[in-house]
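Hey, resending since the last one bounced:
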Amino acid sequence: MEKMNFKIATPERVVFKEDIDSVTLPTRAGEITVLPNHVPLISVLQPGEIRIQNEGKETVLAISGGFVEVLSTKVVVLADTAERSEEIDVARAEAAIRKAQELREQRAGDSREFAALSAQIEKELARVKVGRKMAHRVQMQGAQRSQLEKE
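The structure tokens again:
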């Protein structure tokens, strides 16, 4: 199967760089899946999850927004923040959501602060979704191992 080069970079680091089979991205126009030889495009990304497929294995990352450039053999994501699912502390992200929601309710009259807090909530919701997905997978793999050991 044909591959494409995929890279996710934030201002702090390169989070992911590998040749892959496909990637699904959260754009403002909706979720898109990019395969090798995709038509070139540039798009704004919204907070959400990026799903990378490579040789039957899925890698999931949370992003807080950014941009994507797609070329026929290369995809580059420039993200504000990006985290692999195993890096996410779900409890901390849930606490951040609660705090941002409380602040947003207290400062509803300040439209700029309201927008910034709403963006923070979106970012943390994406982190929770990706973190929970990883926790669920780990739990399922553990259950499968236990079942195999019993047999």
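Strands lie at 4-9, 14-20, 22-27, 30-34, 41-45, 48-54, 57-63, 66-70, 74-79, 82-84.

Sorry for the duplicate.
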